[in-house]
Automatic annotation (TrEMBL):
Annotated source species: Mycobacterium aquaticum
Keyword Magnesium in annotation: no
Active site: 52
Site (Lowers pKa of active site Tyr): 77
List of residues binding substrate: 110
Bilayer-crossing regions: none
GO molecular function, one term: oxidoreductase activity, acting on the CH-OH group of donors, NAD or NADP as acceptor
UniProt family annotation: Belongs to the aldo/keto reductase family.
All residue ranges annotated as the NADP-dependent oxidoreductase domain in the record: 18-268
Keywords: NADP, Oxidoreductase
Lineage, opening ranks: Bacteria, Bacillati, Actinomycetota, Actinomycetes, Mycobacteriales
Protein name from the UniProt record: 2,5-diketo-D-gluconic acid reductase
Amino acid sequence: MSILTETYTLSNGVEIPKLGLGTWLIADDKAAAAVRDAVEIGYRNIDTAQAYGNERGVGEGIHTSGTPREDLFVSTKLAAEIKDYDQAVAAIDGSLAKLKLDYVDLMLIHSPQPWNDFRGGDYAEGNRQAWRALEDAHSAGKLRAIGVSNFEQHDLENILSSGTVTPHVNQLLVHAGNTPTDLLAYCDGRNILVEAYSPIAHGEILNNPDVAAMAEKYGVSVPQLCIRYTLQLGTVSLPKTANPEHMRSNAQVDFVVSDSDMNALRNLHARDYGDASVFPVYRGK
């Protein structure tokens, strides 16, 4: 069985493919081709966001892929700056319009804080309002599942304290070198599936000699090892690429990382993201 046909089941019974295509930094005019290439290769899980500015292109790729809509799992994210119920309602409908879809399989609050104040001020009430908008859209059938992204334990507890739906997903920065073990365990204990974005550490882990040596031992590439690691953690893996060859390679992960090597990767600390450190999620705030 190919990893592209394997799924997890969310707490509400919705199935989500274990491997997906991330589309961050893929321009809107290139997104349709990337999505079509991925779907042709066998990907069924496509992840975008309002902040990526490519929902239109992703939607075009979905509509022109030749694959029935119901066979695809499409995710998007509510802009991090939206911390108000009415604005969130409008933005949810805006995503559906840009994607030209009647429903989205998963929608997330992109961050507990606006990007210009990431890990900064208190937006607890705004997150509760945004979550209520997602819950209402979920009840209306516009969203099959709802969740959050970049939420730490106290952010999740804020949602759990007032919401009627426990988040189905928490999408987090997870990779060999940055494994938030306690948060993963907290989510697992509440049936919140974790999606791992940047499983290849925005490419910087390619320069790590220890990881390269381990990959060589398994006869695989560093990206393949890193993707397999996140899958064995029990997360959805969302490597980003517009390159069809990389898409194919990223899906060739039918090997098993040993327990001792999993522990070594879990205990690895490698959080130097090079030029990507300009982005809030990589700043280590």
